[in-house]
Amino acid sequence: MSFHVYLSGEIHTDWRDEIQRGAEAAGLDVVFTAPVTDHDASDAAGDHLGETPSQFWRDHQSSKVNAIRTRTLIEQSDLVVVRFGDKYKQWNAAFDAGYCAALGKPYVTLHGEEIVHPLKEVDADAQAWCTTTDQVVEVLRYVLKA
């Protein structure tokens, strides 16, 4: 069975690469997609549409352009992995998890124990809470090969 997996969330570490390497090493038939992970490019996604009067409107404009990719790839995925890092608050990742919940799209969360409490509602709807990328790969292995 082939799977499409969207890797949502934190963009400051190589967790996506770890999962992709692990899935490849396990021989899993997985197609991975992700949001734009270049922070500056993401922030400027709507700049070509014209000047904005404030940072709020620049962010608003760019978030709508980014949403074209995000929504499309989440809707096309079989599973979404939502990563919350410890350094920054990933509000966009929480939004992606909520979007998955609204769609009935299966998702797993990936984060440390120190942020279990603030993510209790997000984790409550997840099919699994993982603390390591190896655990994510094991979930994929089970789903695809069991």
TrEMBL record:
Pfam families to which the protein is assigned, alphabetical: Nuc_deoxyri_tr3
Domain of life from the UniProt record: Bacteria
Name of the protein this chain belongs to: YtoQ family protein
